[in-house]
Amino acid sequence: MLNKFMFEQTNLPLLNKGLDTYSLRQKAAAHNIANLNTHGYRRMEVKFEDELRKALKIDKGVTGRITHAGHFKIGADTVEKVEPEPYMPDDPDLHSGVNNVDIEEEMVRLAKAQLSFDFASRMTKNTFTSLRSSIRGEVSS
Known about the structure:
Layout: H1 2-8, H2 12-34, E1 45-47, H3 49-56, E2 85-87, H4 103-136
Antiparallel strand pairs: 1-2
């Protein structure tokens, strides 16, 4: 019962997805920076928010039920099924003359992912602190 409450009535599932996404974005930016001078390398990015928006949408429109492994998905995934997905954007510009990695862009992406990860970590800590206070019957100020 406590597990159901924690993972269905708190923001912990979304925070967990956020932490996974920001961590993967940090890795992608670091990988891109490490390959700055690699001839022909294509930069990586991580997509997540668009699929999450679809999953969180109240009016989900048409939905379907998969009864066979060969069936196509119809409608948006649930939040639990939405995962960050690395991809290589179609960017033909050779920013460095060697590949499509722009060091300034990557440093901004790295900093943004770090700040987002730090924020989600603090929010997770605050959620657990609130839960602990509630269990102990403490009054929050």
